[in-house]
Design brief:
The protein is mostly helical and about 100 residues long. The protein has 2 domains: about 1-60, no CATH class; about 60-95. The protein is about 70% helix and about 0% strand. The chain is built from 3 helices and no strands. The protein has helices at about 5-15, 20-55, 65-85.
């Protein structure tokens, strides 16, 4: 019944003997859907908190190598700009970045 597959047929069979049976079925479906949605939300929140903890545990040194390579690339670009600013006679040995 949780999947709502065939619950109308079950209700139709039970209803002649128990006219208030619809109340049981409706409340069961409401509570079951509420529980399933809450489980889904709990799993999502748990995964988000785990990702946040993993991010906080990550070593600051992990980014150092990436930052060093970026700094070297920026220095090369700065050297190239300085040669452009210094005049055409010094540009001959430097290719464009």
């Amino acid at each position: 019944m949780l999947t709502l597959e065939g619950w109308a047929e079950v209700l139709a069979e039970v209803r002649p003997g128990r006219p208030w049976a619809w109340l049981y079925f409706a409340s069961f479906i409401f509570v079951a859907v509420f529980v399933v949605v809450n489980l889904f939300v709990a799993v999502m929140i748990n995964n988000l908190e785990k990702a946040k903890r993993d991010e906080a545990r990550r070593e600051p040194g992990d980014d150092r190598e990436r930052l060093r390579s970026e700094l070297a690339r920026l220095r090369e670009g700065l050297d190239w700009l300085e040669t452009l600013a210094s005049g055409p006679d010094r540009r001959a040995g430097y290719p464009s970045p």
